């Protein structure tokens, strides 16, 4: 028996909106500790990892580990039927191949809609880069630099450490063990920023010749992480301004 009740239903809507363009179909894994997902995009270039811990739900019951394969596009369409203030409950019986989504409006204290879908169990917006294909992220003692070039020229944005701001969520914190410079496909990074509505802060982790990790904390409940492999060879050299 699986039964999950999420008071902040809009949270699930935002999470799925943030990853639907990267992943079409994925397995959602449920265990006693939480609700999670890990999947790669169709090109096997980017990876997304999601965790919603059990304690973040108003009610969480998972009698046994279960994996539910679902189409994210269909889930997003279905969740559009729920209001932003609605409470979302997910239920799945043992041995069943369906999961029930129930939307409850706290304003009317009654269920407004119950939908069943079939499942198969097998922020900064750097719009200046929008017409470019790649971006170089470089970390030095001077700060973090985003560089790209396009048909009309080059662009460079530098973020320097700033921990003296009044609001902690507006601070820029840079921790560097060694300098690093990597090239990434910009369209994936742009897609990752769709998760910025989930958190006031974003953490970017870089290491030479390893995927970049872009993480958004989901309150005290968990996180959504995106992994993207760097580009190497000719593409990397052509991107450097």
Main traits of this protein?
241 residues, mainly beta, seven-stranded antiparallel beta sheet, five-stranded antiparallel beta sheet, 13% helix, elongated, DNA-binding, DNA_clamp_sf, DNA polymerase processivity factor activity, Pr_cel_nuc_antig
Structure description:
Helices cover 13% and strands 43% of the residues. The protein is mostly beta strands. The strands form three sheets. A seven-stranded antiparallel β-sheet has the order 6-2-3-4-16-15-14. The protein has a five-stranded antiparallel β-sheet with strand order 5-1-7-8-9, with helices on one face. β14 and β15 form a beta hairpin. α1 packs antiparallel against α2. The protein is elongated and about 55 Å long. It starts with a strand and ends with a helix. The relative contact order is 0.18. Pfam families: PCNA_C, PCNA_N. It is found in: Nucleus. This protein is an auxiliary protein of DNA polymerase delta and is involved in the control of eukaryotic DNA replication by increasing the polymerase's processivity during elongation of the leading strand. InterPro entries: DNA_clamp_sf, Pr_cel_nuc_antig, Pr_cel_nuc_antig_C, Pr_cel_nuc_antig_CS, Pr_cel_nuc_antig_N.
